[in-house]
Amino acid sequence: MSSLQLNGAIFDMDGVLVDSERLYMRFWQEACASFGFALSCEMALSLRSNSPETAIPKFMKWFGERADYYQIRDLRRRQMADYIDKNGVDIKPGAAEILDVLKQKGLKIALATASPAKRARHYLAPHGLFDKFDAVVSGASLARSKPAPDIYLLAAEMLGLPPDQCMAVEDSPSGILSAKTAGCFTVMIPDLTEPDEEIRSKIDFIAKDLTAVSEII
């Protein structure tokens, strides 16, 4: 680890900094059920960080042409937003501390999330986390989101660093693929699913939690 030249850290949000993946899975299932489709936990988890370009083929395979991905997604977003507006969303243990530690070590920090920037602020600002980032990149503003590398390439560029000087902290397979393709040092903190063998081959470090990320630097 000591031979690594890491000058930046790029964090995913959902499932890494905020404990939102369980809500994400719940409301995907509820929204699908409202349209008469049964979405398993495994299916819901496979949608994490996906852009419409990668999610729509999955919907077509699972439910056929009668499934309107955008209509179901919009319902899921409304239901989840209503829930969070009333109940808030918890941050992951150690989230504030690891951002502070990395800053103290001189690293630049970016957020690279599939969520819109407005939602990221809504989730993170109440906990004092949003303003800790030097750059924020939303996949919603890109033509290609995860698992394409674009979001990590742009985040590294906004930090003024080459991707190979940035570690990417992720919890999802699509996020790991995105970061690895971009050339980042990949760190996975498994949340609801453990990585399979294919994804393990693309992970440089597996951390049990956010606190363990400091072991890399």
Q: Could you walk me through the main structural features you see in this protein, from its secondary elements to its overall organization?
A:
The chain has helices at 21-34, 41-46, 52-63, 69-87, 95-104, 117-124, 150-159, 173-182, 197-200; strands spanning 8-11, 108-113, 135-138, 166-170, 185-188, 205-206. It has a six-stranded parallel sheet with strand order 3-2-1-4-5-6, sandwiched between helices. 41% of the residues are buried. Strand 4 (166-170), helix 8 and strand 5 form a beta-alpha-beta unit. The chain has two domains: 8-19 and 90-215, HAD superfamily/HAD-like (Rossmann fold, 3-Layer(aba) Sandwich); 21-87, Putative phosphatase, domain 2 (DNA polymerase, domain 1). The termini are close together. It is of the alpha/beta class and 217 residues long.
Structure, briefly:
The chain is an alpha/beta fold and 217 residues long. The chain is 43% helix and 12% strand.
